[in-house]
Design brief:
The structure holds two protein chains of two kinds. By secondary structure, chain A is mostly helical. Chain A has one helix and no strands. In chain B, helix 1 runs parallel beside helix 3, helix 1 runs antiparallel to helix 17 and helix 2 runs parallel beside helix 4. Classes of the chains: A mainly alpha, B mainly alpha.
């Protein structure tokens, strides 16, 4: 029986896509809190 | 030679046993809190009982369950990874008994209502001396355990000169170094502040210094929990998923970075504390964001390892490898679901770690929503999944109640999703954390939280059912599991062969020294500066 294909000779393109997607969502989520929650309320020292 | 000849399985099992028992009590406390938060009039419901149960849940889950589980895991992985018994097994048993005695003392103080000081035990809330001494003994026990693991590794290195430390042991050693550096802070708080104060030797305590010492310890504590979970992600899951670890070398980089960066980040928990100068808060902010990096690398490496596994099972498309993974294996599904929720927790952590956005969520329900995704899922669900894999190998008994084990991670995932997302949203709406009466006696603002609080409570009920399933599976396995001869503890192979010889990564003393230097840079002057100022001590308060 031949050795199963492990994908070891390929770039993990699915992983790269997921990680890229997560990076975008991560940044968008942070900016959403900053722009739509923090800025309208203003800093606590005002 | 049998698979268990070079192992200290009874010791590992004993540690896991205390961990599971603490988990059971803590889960029951959480169930009570969930129902109380939903404003259900339970028998015996009161503010005092609520805060007692919050304290018990936090201490037993975050300190006792995690520490004992990690000690058990450390024994098992050191045995299996180094293929030798512990160097000082009797000393390791002493560590177990010291920590167990400490747990009994602290638990007694909590359940008798003498230590309602919450998990952070911030003064001037004051507890019975048994609480502080008990927790100190838990830490002392863990130090003795650390000594045994480190000396076992040293003995192995002498027997195998020039060989690279196996990654599963390397990760545990990284966790130990993080722990040893971090616990200096809580030891100082206990020995110089809280124990003398609770015994009446000193009349007042400096709450600001105590908070600084607590968070010196409190944030790296997160990495003490997380690194053993990462060891499972790196060295157990790829194999169970049918693949290989994408890169062991990346794992070594990750663990070394955690050794260096885990401790000098505590001020990001104190952004709202006036006594910490802004410049030092900013330094800790930068270091906190740097320490996101090794977790991102881990997410990449483990996901790539899973992709390798999915492709080995015949997947060809961009994402179809996800469906090829063994989602029915409770250990694998626990980790996969833990990783998904940890990704959400990572985003929340970045909000907490930013000075501006932290001011929006500080001390709100967002915080409990956040850490239930990190320690409450990424760590706890990984540990539960690990127990399904490890306990049969330690006890020589097959996993019982397999259907409950298969369902349990999904229930946890769903329960935590409801609980945590609801708490993130109510936190943004301004709902404080750790509040007995979330209705604020009928306040109109609080009225807007109520539907989400009910969703959070529903999540709590699912989490309790999931916890019960886990406990039943553990009890069933230990008490009624069929005997099995299959007890080998095997770790993942790597996609590319690892270099056999040791490298700079194995020089753990160098990484520990860099960590200490960074800690001195980040903490020495702020603490010196604080001690140089006039400070105003506080007497103790026991509101409940």
């Amino acid at each position: 029986m031949s050795e199963p294909h492990t994908g070891g000779d390929e770039h993990p393109r699915g992983t790269l896509a997921l990680v890229g997607l997560y990076g975008v969502l991560f940044a968008l989520g942070w900016f959403a809190i900053y722009l739509f929650v923090y800025l309208p309320r203003g800093p606590v020292t005002q | 030679m049998s698979a268990t000849a070079n192992r200290d399985d009874r010791l590992a099992t004993a540690n896991l046993g205390v961990a599971v028992a603490a988990f059971g009590v803590a889960a029951f406390m959480a169930f009570m809190q969930a129902l109380s938060r939903a404003n259900l009039e339970l028998p015996g419901r009161s503010a005092g009982m609520y805060y007692l149960s919050v304290t018990a849940h936090g201490v037993l889950m975050a300190i006792v369950f995690t520490t004992f589980f990690i000690m058990g895991l450390g024994v098992a992985f050191t045995n299996a990874g180094l293929e030798r018994r512990l160097r000082y097994p009797r000393t390791a048993w002493a560590a177990f008994w010291i920590a167990t005695l400490g747990t009994v003392m602290a638990t007694w103080a909590i359940v008798t209502g003498k230590a309602t000081v919450l998990y952070t035990f911030y003064p001037p809330l004051q507890a019975h001396p048994a609480f502080y001494i008990g927790l100190t003994l838990v830490v002392v026990g863990s130090w003795v355990w650390s000594f045994v693991i480190l000396s076992t590794w040293t003995a192995w290195r002498n027997e195998h000169p020039g060989q690279a430390t196996p990654l599963e042991v390397y990760g545990m050693l990284a966790a130990i170094i993080v722990w040893l550096v971090a616990t200096i802070g809580v030891a100082a708080e206990m020995l110089f502040q809280l124990i003398p104060w609770s015994l009446g030797i000193t009349e007042t305590v400096d709450p600001m210094l105590a908070r600084t010492l607590f968070w010196y310890f409190g944030h790296p504590l997160v990495y003490f929990w997380l690194l053993p979970a990462y060891v499972v992600w790196y060295m157990v899951i790829p194999r169970l998923a049918g693949g290989k670890l994408f890169s062991a070398q990346l794992g070594r980089v990750v663990f070394a970075m955690f050794i260096v960066l885990s401790t000098p980040v505590g001020f990001h928990h104190q952004y709202m504390d006036p006594a910490v100068p802004s410049g030092w808060k900013m330094l800790h902010t930068f270091l906190t964001f740097i320490i996101l990096f090794p977790s991102f690398v881990t997410a990449f490496t483990i996901t790539a390892s899973l992709e390798v596994a999915g492709r080995a099972r015949g997947a060809r498309g961009l994402f179809d490898w996800i469906g090829k993974l063994p989602w029915g294996d409770p250990t694998v599904s626990s980790v996969l679901l833990a990783m998904i929720l940890f990704a959400v927790g990572g985003f929340g952590g970045a909000v907490n770690a930013s000075f501006a956005t932290d001011s929006v969520v500080h001390n709100t329900a967002w915080i409990q929503g956040h850490f239930h995704l990190t320690v409450g899922t990424a760590v706890a669900l990984t540990f539960m999944g690990t127990a399904y894999w490890l306990v049969p190998r330690l006890t020589g008994r097959e996993l019982e109640l397999g259907l409950l084990a298969k369902v349990q991670p999904y229930l946890w995932f769903l329960g935590m999703l409801l609980f945590s997302i609801a708490n993130h949203i109510t936190g943004l709406m301004g709902m404080p954390r750790r509040v007995f009466d979330a209705t604020y006696q009928g306040s109109a603002i609080a009225e807007r939280w109520q539907s989400l609080t009910a969703i959070s409570a529903a999540g709590g009920v699912l989490l309790f059912i999931s916890s019960t399933f886990f406990l039943l599976v553990m009890l069933g396995t230990v008490l009624a599991g069929k005997k099995t001869a299959s007890r080998e503890i095997q770790f993942s192979e790597t996609l590319q062969p690892e270099p056999a010889s040791s490298s700079i990564f194995d020089r753990l003393g160098v990484w520990a020294a860099i960590a200490v230097v960074l800690v001195l840079i980040a903490y020495a002057y702020p603490i010196y500066s604080h001690l140089s100022m006039p400070t105003f001590g506080s007497p103790g308060y026991k509101p409940y």
